[in-house]
Amino acid sequence: MSNFHGLDSITLNPGDDLPPLAPGTIRLYNMRFCPYAERSVLYLAKKNIPVEVVNVNLVNKPKWLLEKNPLGKVPTLEHDGKVVYESAVVNEYLDEIFPESSVLPKDPYERAHQKILVERLSSIPTALYGVVRSTPETRDAAVEAIKKALANADSLLTDDFYGGKSTGFADLSIWPFLERLGLFALRPELNLGEVPSKENKKLIAYIERMKQQPEVKAAMRPIDQHAAF
Amino acid sequence: MSNFHGLDSITLNPGDDLPPLAPGTIRLYNMRFCPYAERSVLYLAKKNIPVEVVNVNLVNKPKWLLEKNPLGKVPTLEHDGKVVYESAVVNEYLDEIFPESSVLPKDPYERAHQKILVERLSSIPTALYGVVRSTPETRDAAVEAIKKALANADSLLTDDFYGGKSTGFADLSIWPFLERLGLFALRPELNLGEVPSKENKKLIAYIERMKQQPEVKAAMRPIDQHAAF
């Protein structure tokens, strides 16, 4: 049985009531196509924490979302009157309140290195948004940036996963962006060719390996749904 | 006696040898005017950790810096063959290896909130760089952004410090940027008026309070030095 309740529930809009939150229940404010929120969905799946998901409209935000999180962003976590947001903060917090299923390693140096990997892989999200927002004038540079970011990610893979022999903090942080690379195949006008390119051998094998992980199966959505969004 | 050795040592350039690092010594690769590196200088000062500082040229980077940290940035921490970088990662790591002087609170929710505050105050660094890089065309929007960011910082002050009754993780993270606000007074062409403005009463009192903290006294530099840089 899934640890999620309401992962595909309808999106709530301004004017919709905030559903009551039962004591002891952990709630995740989510948007089904937000890669940052997906980082916490993946984390909750991997840790197998029972959670109630409330999907919200991020273009027109319900007032109660802004009352919980003044930045009005997802993921936002709430339980027993406590509200935590920002994907990295939420995931680290989940490890601290549920240490028995900690995804981050206990060793300070190894912990630091998972966070450093997130930083070193952050050229992927930056380049991905760069391509999406590119104009005909800036397209070549944006395409170059995503290819460079993926080659860098390929070079950083020294084991099955960025976390070693199993998925870790960095894997669950970068995956939502790799999942969305398939969107580029639907936009031939970008002239991107294959992303990742055939040369990114380790990264290609990694993506296939990731798709077999239970937490990825629980969180990922078909590329046509992303495209429709 | 200061916990720092070499905080004002000469800047090392490409071609300069990497000074040998003695076993057990903690080294901080630093640039004297980098606000991100200053976050870790403040942290090391507050925790009173003996540290050897190596100042590096970030425009022309010594090759050995890039070998330690492929991103070529500061702060970079090294001890006993372990290298950690990115200011937030370095500071959290320092708390983990020296827990007796932890700046971050032990409680997971309070810890999370210090990190959330850093995020909520991040409009200040963004706006500060926005003003510095503004052109005559974008200047009005950049000035508006810094005023808004400072009003937001003022509204978030609910105690003596963002950390409560004493300085915490968020205070030491935002201070380097507040320290540099004085640079604007030296650029009347920006037409910024006073920053923070007289209405940001809590923030003005906070800045004066921060200047009295031992770690701030250890780390801050006169504004004319920043300006000369």
From TrEMBL, chains A, B:
Would I find Oxidoreductase among this entry's keywords?
A: yes
Q: Name one GO cellular component term.
A: cytoplasm
Task: Report the record's Gene Ontology biological process terms.
Answer: glutathione metabolic process
What the entry lists under PROSITE patterns is as follows: GST_CTER (PS50405), GST_NTER (PS50404)
What Enzyme Commission number(s) does the record list for this chain?
1.20.4.2, 1.8.5.1, 2.5.1.18
What is the stated purpose of this protein?
Exhibits glutathione-dependent thiol transferase activity. Has high dehydroascorbate reductase activity and may contribute to the recycling of ascorbic acid. Participates in the biotransformation of inorganic arsenic and reduces monomethylarsonic acid (MMA).
Q: What is this protein called?
A: Glutathione S-transferase omega
Name the species this protein comes from: Plectus sambesii
